[in-house]
Specification:
alpha/beta; Gyrase A, domain 2; 5-stranded parallel sheet; 24 helices; 56% helix; globular
Length: 595
Amino acid sequence: MSFISYIQSSAIKSLTQLYGQSFSENDFQVNETKPEFEGDYTIVLFALVKTLKKSPEALGKELGEQILKDHPDFFSGYNVIKGFLNLTIADQQLSLLLQKNYGDENFGKKAANHKKVMVEYSSPNTNKPLHLGHLRNNFLGWSVAEILKANGNEVVKTSIVNDRGIHICKSMIAWQMFAHGETPESAHKKGDHFVGDYYVKFNDEYKKEVEELISKGKSKEIAEKEAPVMKKTQQMLLDWEQAKPEVRELWKTMNSWVYKGFDETYKRIGSDFDKTFYESDTYLLGKDFVKEGLEKNILFRKDDGSVWIDLSDKNLDEKLVLRSDGTSVYITQDIGLAQQKFEEYHLDKSIYVIGDEQLHHMKVLKEIIRKLGMPFADHIFHLSYGMVELTTGKMKSREGTVVDADDFIDEMVATAEKHTEELGKVNDFSKEELKELYEILGLGAMKFYLLRVDPKKRMIFNPEESIDFHGFTGPFVQYTYARIQSILRKVSEQPAISNQQTGTGKLLPLERQLMIMLEKYENIILDAGEEMNPSIIANYVFNLAKLYNSFYAEHSVANAENEEKKNLRLSISVMTSGVIKSGLQLLGIKVPERM
């Protein structure tokens, strides 16, 4: 039981004894005590004052005395300031916390709760490489999945790959026209970049043909429709849908190049999936519900034969679900895939990590599913996130507007190398060790910077700021972890804690603060899971690292005043490094053992 939960139950018990009434945790709040006041946790009394018709001072004194009487081993004192009862946790209780948990790698994590959750993220197109937006999506989806696991859920990580459609055919047509048999291997290019280059070539050729037609007197609208390269692409899409063998074979070949490239990027950034869905397998799903919806008058057919749903009662207007030619639209496929997911995996919740530009689409999806009477409508959750922008235009861009993920990662690793060499503390590292360190720091800086912000907010990424070893950054937290490992190596042996070693000596303020903060990790994981917000973890590990640095600047560990203090501070150091490592792992960030 966490300290806050214990305080809540203690206060309820004491209130009942004092006043002979039933109380619940909703009758009062328990917060951390503000730094300017003495105490660790504060019970806010105002709601109770109104109920019990007592002055805040009288109520606070009566409740404080009763809590200390009922729990003398847990609390060492209290004070009342206006409507706030400030409680101090006993030093011995903090020592017991340390004894029990300082070496526990699973500290803060929950036992299995037998709930199954699916998290869908990444969802790239197979006509170009991953970009900066995909990085935020992958980091957010992967981290939320790990945080949900830490809260006891069974998690299925999935991705839907958009591997068919007109945009895929554009790359295919361009390859047929310009490649002359070239492959990623012969071009010495990563497969997704190779195919992406042909997507750019298509756009260049299309633009040229449109301009030629306009120069011959065609309107822009007509020129865009009659451009030969576009007509070839549209024909290829029809051939694909009719399963023309040579088109399907080229499609499979080019997609395989892209998948190999994606896999290299995913491996580098530490992103993985338990199940990958492909649009080429799912695009026909969902048509069955159209017939059912028409029979139940939930859907209606217009004069041109297209099928729609009226969502005006939900302020969402009408939505097309089947075109007049009988082909499905994205929302149709999404309904079919959602149904498949729930039937196949028996999910308690399905989380879609999708940018906030799809808010309307996701609202429509849920409402259609609800109107069709599907039982999982309320188990779908859209984890939306804001766009990422850069402060600088220096990052490479393949199409002038989108920042390529691989280029961005390389730039971050190079920035990490520059900043680390400026500090001049890695002279004894081998080339291989330095390469690994720069990769850990560059990726750590990028992930932390992207995850430290509430997902709902749009953000500006500053590469230089993200790598600052003294700022609100991943490298600062990583450096603190490495510093603690250095301390532990110098001491040469980790402590074996016992009651005799921790003793009953008075804890100093920074020792107490660190132990109180470490205890909160369980609630931090819980809050991050409930809100599906990794920034809660990021902010916590940063503040923990900052507090440890203040502690270390004030108090010696290896040369403590006595053996008891030495063992206590070593235990605090072990637990702090363990929690930092655990928290960063939930963000997908590795820790260096030395820096």
